[in-house]
Design a protein that fits this description.
By secondary structure, the chain is an alpha/beta fold. It contains 13 helices and 20 strands. About 30% of the residues lie in helices and about 15% in strands.
Length: about 525
């Protein structure tokens, strides 16, 4: 990029005023426009005043928005306009300058295109259950990664993993392409020969619940193991711990449970149960990033924890997930299953981290076979891109405020709906917990003068989005019928939530005006129903 000493001036009533001295770079001159990148603030508009842009050094900290002027506004664009060619910027400085320019353009794009333009209008505007909450900094971070054009995991991946570990207090983090993939990796990693006599094998049992998201349970079946499903408790919608304890058999080897809608399950009792019987404990935290149990982050109590960064979740990178652990052997297994099953642990784009790339002998391969192409597991390719990680890294800066907003919104709904316990079972946090809520769950009581389908239809017609508690009773789902499982107890509460439970959103994009509308319409519905019966 050439640096020029530039004089730009406008012919106003055939008069040329004394130009203002400023620092800048001419980026482009063509037939119909001249684009100028000022390096110090410019007073006024390029089309309304005379501006002198003089370049001798760069002042990137003062870089404002770029200016664009039609050439018809200028007296001339020729050799007298570009007075002195000051030389050429190096590649690194050009890269720095253009990234700054791109960031400024992205901020302007966000301001004019992405920021909401209309205020909330009840009955006309939607009240979503969840959604992405982002700002110009998230978009700028994505732009930074795009300019790197490193299309797999790279520097942003490593920075995000470090930030997530720091937030949680964990040692190891492996990013993956979704929370569902994270669950698959967590379960699959426990089948590794690295774990010796503790490895999971086909036919082993894994304790879980039938009320949840399908990809919490599917990896158990996909790995040839048997899910043992117990019932849940109403109010917390987490596993019945008494039933979990009674369900343990000689074949039981692990527990995998989700913190339902961000509400931690009873980690104290369940961790003691796992320790007593030598069971692996996997925490599915996809809906619970930032939830606390006894003041400690969920995801740090078990052997492995999983997270999701889908747009509906606490932070987003679009599609994305993570698997965290404090166990170095488990981390090696997790990353191997994620990266094709390879034995090599070199980062993408790097070779010979171990210093003996051609000195290994594993399996029946010949001595010295390239370690980059030795596979110790039947793995997958479940990696993510650096562009995804760049968004997540930026979102991490807002995570604490997002968590607080979710708690505030949940508390708002609870305080305004608590007088409706005659009609609903209201949600309650697990004892000793401080949830980072994913949603506000309501169970229609059997004696209520309405059904779940009726109130859900009413709310949806008024643009208030609702959701079920995911799969309901997963044993009833078509994809899970006929699959191997053990049900040691009746799933009465699970069946109840399948027919009576729904939830509404608490995510940070919701305002008190929106939440107030939700409360108002729930009460309006109940008033209509009770008045019609009187």
């Amino acid at each position: 990029m050439n640096i020029f000493d530039v004089l730009v001036y406008q012919d106003t009533n055939n008069k040329i005023d004394r130009p203002l001295e400023r620092w800048g770079v001419v980026l482009d001159v063509n037939g119909d426009s001249i684009q100028i990148l000022p390096l110090e603030p410019v007073i006024g508009d390029l089309g309304q005043g005379n501006i002198f842009l003089h370049v001798e050094k760069l002042s990137l900290d003062l870089l404002p928005m770029p200016l664009m002027a039609k050439s018809s506004h200028l007296r001339e664009i020729n050799s007298s306009t570009v007075l002195i060619n000051k030389g050429n910027l190096g590649v690194s400085k050009t890269d720095e300058l253009l990234r700054k320019l791109m960031g400024n353009l992205i901020e302007r794009h966000h301001q004019y295109v992405h920021l909401p333009k209309a205020s909330f209008v009840p009955t006309q505007s939607s009240v979503p259950c969840a959604g992405r909450v982002y700002d110009a900094q998230d978009m700028k971070s994505l732009g930074e990664a795009a300019l790197d054009f490193w299309l797999t995991g790279g520097r942003f991946e490593k920075m995000f993993e470090k930030e997530l570990n720091a937030f949680l207090g964990t040692r190891f983090c492996a990013l993956t392409n979704s929370g569902s993939s994270a669950n698959l990796l967590a379960v699959s990693s426990l089948t590794s020969p690295l774990l010796k006599e503790r490895r999971l094998k086909p036919g082993d049992e894994v304790l879980t619940v039938a009320a949840g998201f399908p990809t919490t349970i599917a990896p158990i079946i996909q790995n040839g193991m048997v899910p043992v499903m117990v019932d849940i408790e109403l109010g917390t919608y987490n596993a019945n711990v008494d039933q979990l304890e009674q369900a343990v058999s000689s074949r039981t080897k692990a527990i995998i449970l989700a913190h339902t809608l961000g509400n931690p399950f009873n980690l104290h009792r369940i961790k003691l149960l796992a320790q007593k019987h030598g069971l692996w404990l996997i925490e599915d935290c996809c809906d619970a990033l930032g939830s606390l149990y006894q003041g400690q982050c969920v995801g740090t109590w078990g052997d492995i924890a999983t997270f999701s960064f889908y747009p509906a979740h606490h932070i987003t990178m679009g599609e994305g997930g993570a698997v965290v652990t404090n166990n170095a052997v488990l981390h090696k297994s997790i990353t191997s299953f994620r990266d094709w099953g390879r034995d090599c642990y070199c980062d993408t784009g790097k070779d010979n981290t171990c210093g003996k790339r051609f000195a290994w002998q594993l399996g029946d391969l010949p001595q010295g076979y390239d370690h980059k192409y030795i596979y110790s597991h039947l793995g997958y390719n479940l990696k993510l891109t650096d562009m995804q990680a760049s968004v997540g890294l930026s979102q991490m800066k807002k995570l604490k405020s997002f968590i607080q907003a979710r708690r505030n919104n949940w508390q708002y709904l609870w305080s305004h709906l608590k007088d409706l316990e005659e009609y609903f079972i209201l949600p309650r946090p697990e004892e000793f917990s401080d949830p980072s809520w994913f949603g506000f769950i309501l169970a229609v009581r059997p004696q209520a003068p309405f059904t779940r389908p009726e109130i859900v239809s009413y709310l949806e017609e008024r643009k208030i989005a609702t959701r079920m508690l995911f799969a309901g009773n997963i044993t009833k789902q078509p994809g899970f019928q006929g699959s191997n499982r053990r049900l040691p107890f009746e799933l009465n509460n699970t069946d109840f939530i399948m027919t009576n439970v729904f939830w509404v959103g608490v995510y940070p994009g919701l305002t008190h005006e929106m939440l107030g509308y939700v409360v108002q319409e729930i009460k309006n519905f109940i008033k209509q129903r009770t008045c019609s019966l009187s």
